[in-house]
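Predict the structure of tRNA (guanine-N(1)-)-methyltransferase.
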Amino acid sequence: MLTFSFLTLFPELLAPFAGEAIIGKARDRGLLDVKLVQLRDFADDKHMKVDDTPYGGGAGMVIRVDVAERALASLSPADEVILLTPAGQPFTQAVAEELAQKSHLAFLCGRYEGFDARTEGLVTRELSIGDFVMMGGEAAAACVLEAVARLLPGVIGDPDSHRADSFSSGLLDYPEYTRPPEWRGQSVPEVLRGGNHGAVALWRRRQALERTLARRPDLLSGAELTPQDSATLLELGVTAQQLQGWNAPPPPRPKRARRRKNIDANEQSE
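Done. Here is the predicted structure for tRNA (guanine-N(1)-)-methyltransferase.
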């Protein structure tokens, strides 16, 4: 069981997110645990003050390193102590898969002007969910919780479903359809209704390649491409030079026409 511990000034922001839907059900079934730790419980004065003005002047307040240290010390040892910060490593599907192998993750969720810089010495990893600034780390921590939790065994219904998700293979996901088959002049692709699973798999792979090429071509350099993928990308207008830049394997060679085995004896004698 993986335990997520969130050290925050606003545990009420994370409580509903961690208690509903799939994550809430997973907690009820003992597949994961979520602990919400109020940083104010580790203040050293009667006013429960956790922050102070920055040395050198400037706007805003800074959360004290000693408060963060005491809060972390109250936990059982964590495999990773993670600070949510715009300066952190970009959070990706690969990082989520790595964190899903751990047993205890502790998250420091900042507010105001963030944590005293000396807090960085208490963490093992800094993560960012994007190049933008929010009012605190709780929303970012919720994103990490959901991305990691769904990878744990038993949390989602089909244990193989996440392997086809966007980014799991380095590509965006293929488009999905359901009923009704016709809606405002738009039809579900016939291949998806034909019952040919092989044809469906080929169509989905082509759609994933086409979507990634159109929307996130930067992902193709790190995708797990096959020779057939290279052939498909060439059909979609990619150049051989682009394939080389992405380290894609060469497309399959065209098959040579087979010679007739049974050649007339008179032809042989000629």
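Residues 65 and 118 are 6 Å apart (CA to CA).
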